[in-house]
Design goal:
single chain; mainly alpha
């Protein structure tokens, strides 16, 4: 079922959003068949990429992380994605009444989970962390994520296209604020001595 919806979101997103809505998936089932699986792609890829290949900016030897450090970061990265999907779903649910949408929390979490699908899938690029390659491939994936947000909100929330546009813009703003907050927390943790450990 998960692969069917993922494929459908790339082939015919609006039709697939209707199918996803009609599935009435619970939070537990959504996590079991979608989020837990796809969120592992960037976490595992990042672990392999930073320990086996490393990255370099400009000329020089690639920089690699120790297995212990990369493992801890991969686990925290995975947990952050799981929490992030639920948190975004909760925020969508919380904001829903403002835009005339009264849908269950589970449907909002499912919406958040499927919106994040392109970002989960593009995580495979972290296997070989070359900055310019990741940027070239990552920007279209991010753009498609935004497209899924704007096309999915009106259908999943049962509101008009106009209200859906405003609602989607608010969700996008919340997502950007959450991303900046996560970067700030990461910087604080690194300053407290939890920074990555590099191989010699």
């Amino acid at each position: 079922m998960v692969l069917q919806h993922v494929w459908g979101l790339f082939v015919n997103p609006k039709r697939e959003w209707v199918a996803i809505r009609d599935d009435k998936c619970t939070i537990g089932k959504c996590y079991a068949v979608h989020v837990l699986i796809l969120a592992a792609i960037p976490a595992i890829s990042g672990f392999i990429g930073t320990t086996q290949f490393g990255w370099s900016i400009g000329v020089g030897e690639p920089v690699k992380l120790t297995v212990q450090s990369a493992g801890m970061i991969a686990v925290l990265y995975y947990l952050a994605m799981l929490v992030g999907v639920y948190s975004l779903g909760w925020m969508i649910h919380w904001m829903g009444e403002t835009y005339g949408a009264r849908v269950p929390l589970s449907q909002c979490v499912v919406l958040a989970a499927y919106i994040a699908t392109p970002l989960f899938l593009i995580g495979i690029m972290e296997l070989y962390p070359v900055l310019w390659v990741n940027m070239v491939v990552g920007i279209p994936a991010l753009a498609y994520t935004v497209y899924l947000l704007y096309s999915g909100v009106p259908i999943m929330m049962g509101i008009s296209e106009d209200r859906g546009f405003l609602f989607s813009s608010a969700v996008l703003a919340v997502g950007l604020v959450a991303f900046v907050a996560l970067l700030a927390i990461t910087a604080i943790l690194w300053g407290m001595g939890l920074e990555p450990q590099f191989t010699q």
